[in-house]
Amino acid sequence: MLATHEQPLKTHVVTSDERMAGVPAVLRYRSDDPFAVRLAFLDVDPGADGEGEGDGEIVDGIEWVFARDLLTDGLHTPTGEGDVRVWPFGPGDLMIELRSGASTALVITPQAAVRLFLCHIYAIVPAGAEPGYLNLDRELARLVGHG
C-alpha cells in the first residue's frame, strides 16, 4: 500500500542574482520510491491569461529529487556531491545547495522542520527496509518506456 508524507517548509533562497525570503516549499516522500525525497518550490498560479487573474492556487514549480540519506546525514555533517549538497547552518538551520549547470541556489530552512519530516518518513519506511518497498517490475517497465 502506498504511503506518502508532505512537510511544508519556510525557506530563504539565495541565488547569484538575488535573495528571496519566504519562498514556499514542501518536502515530499512516497513509499514506492523509498530511497528518495523531493523538494518542491511552489508558485502561485496567476491564471490562464498570465495577468494575475488566476485563483491564486498554489502549484508546483521546480522540484528536486535526491537521496533521503543525503538529507539525514546533512543534519549532522556536510554531505553530498554533484548537484545537491546539504550541511548544518548556524544554530538551527540547514543549508541545501542546488546546482544546475552554471546556476547555484542556496536554500536555508529550519532543521526542526526537516527533522520532523524525517521522523515521519522513517516511520513509513524504516532505514534498511527500502528494498521491500520497491516494485522492480514497474520501475524496469518505466525505464524501458513501457510504464
Please tell me what the overall shape is. Answer: globular
Helix proportion of residues, in percent?
A: 10-25%
Please report the number of helical segments. Answer: 3
Oligomeric form: single chain
**N-C termini distance:** 19 Å
Q: What's the rounded overall pLDDT mean?
A: 86
Q: Give me the Rg, rounded.
A: 17 Å
Order of helices and strands: EEEEHEEEHH
- Identify low-pLDDT runs: none
What can be said about the biggest beta sheet? 7 strands, antiparallel
Structural class: alpha+beta
**Strand line-up in the sheet with most strands:** 4-3-2-1-7-6-5
- Give the percentage of residues in beta strands: 35-45%
How many β-strand stretches? Answer: 7
Layout of strands and helices, then pairs:
Blueprint: E1 4-15, E2 19-30, E3 36-44, E4 58-67, H1 68-74, E5 84-89, E6 93-100, E7 103-110, H2 111-124, H3 136-143
Antiparallel strand pairs: 1-2, 1-7, 2-3, 3-4, 5-6, 6-7
Folded structure, characterized:
With 147 residues, this protein is of the alpha+beta class. The protein has three helices and seven strands; from the N terminus they run E-E-E-E-H-E-E-E-H-H. It has helices spanning 68-74, 111-124, 136-143, and strands at residues 4-15, 19-30, 36-44, 58-67, 84-89, 93-100, 103-110. A seven-stranded antiparallel sheet has the order 4-3-2-1-7-6-5. A hairpin with a 5-residue loop joins strand 2 (19-30) and strand 3.
Which characteristics define this entry?
single chain, 3 helices, 20% helix, 7 strands, 147 residues, seven-stranded antiparallel sheet, globular, alpha+beta, 44% strand
